[in-house]
Amino acid sequence: MSIIGSRGTGNITSSRRVLDVPEKIFLLQPDAAPLVQILFKAKKKTTINPKFTWYERDLFPKRDQINDSKTHTSTETTFTVDHGSYFKAGDVIKDENTGEQMYVSSVSSNVLTVIRGWGETAASSSIDDDDYLLVLGNANEEGASSPGLKSETSTEVYNYVQDFRSPFEITDILMNSELYGGGDLQNERVIKLVEHKVDLERALLFGERKLDTSTGTHPIRSTRGAVKFISTNVTTATTITETTFETILEGAFAYGSGTKVLFASAKLVSAINYWGRGKLRTVPKDETYGISVKEYLSAHGTLLVVKHRLLTNSSGANYGGYGLILDMDKIFVRVMKNLDTKLRTNLQNNDETKEKDEYRTVCGLQLNNEEAHAVVKGVVAYS
Are the CB atoms for 170 and 9 separated by under 8 Å? Predict the structure, then answer.
């Protein structure tokens, strides 16, 4: 295309104005946003839709409780349980409290009919409400047809991407002025990139899922963060002890990987330092994407401890008393196709004597199997 007159930014096609910077973002202050540092470096997946969905499925439950407000004698053969759907005829079950093994002959709603003392342990004279029943599998007659079928259905989980934008602008006079510390545009690009990372970090930690179609022509979306996903292993501990911390780890390591990452407030890090002398070692930064990490060894698993600068409050109040234990094998950042972190340049109107740039990322969080993660909060002291 021919151009008459001066060449300017208005003559440059939009495709030439975009600088791709997904690698550069990780080089600047990795400890400022450690979750973003890890996810964008090693745990990134593309999404082709602003709403992304995944499915989760657990093993079929094999443990339940008796739900009868009385004590059963050794001759009684029917029990009401919390979830009759967990059982089928032919199951061999054991009362964890008494050790008695029984054989399930039939199931009707939440009522089991059983053969008592089906094994080497005699029928107990005191099977109580809330006794735990453990399914040991099924036992079948020789030559019999297949037993009944039971399985868990998959659960749909979803989240949205969020459109993160961090604009900034500099006048042409300032850009062409000599300044101590280098050019202002370049300095602003560095600072805004760090701020952009921190915005992503806050949302991936604390955000809530929202699709708002009431504000204008197009929807606004926000992504759900890790704290909102986790509901099973959540502990409030005002004065945390090592015993309480080990109980938290017991729940966190019940599912998933044997190595997890704790993103911890300063108060919680101080507590771990207090208990953990001899249990902590420094992990080389070339193994942790440049993040400062301590390794805490527990009988439950290996915990990589990261002091998180965004979990700050000297009193421990609010997020200053938080810690998030995340299984990094089960967490991903989902980036909208072709909308990974980019520096978009020269966005100003063509007749303006300044340069306007912005960093933009369109992404959301995928956290699988929330039971494999944990949150501790409210920590203001330790002993």
Answer: no
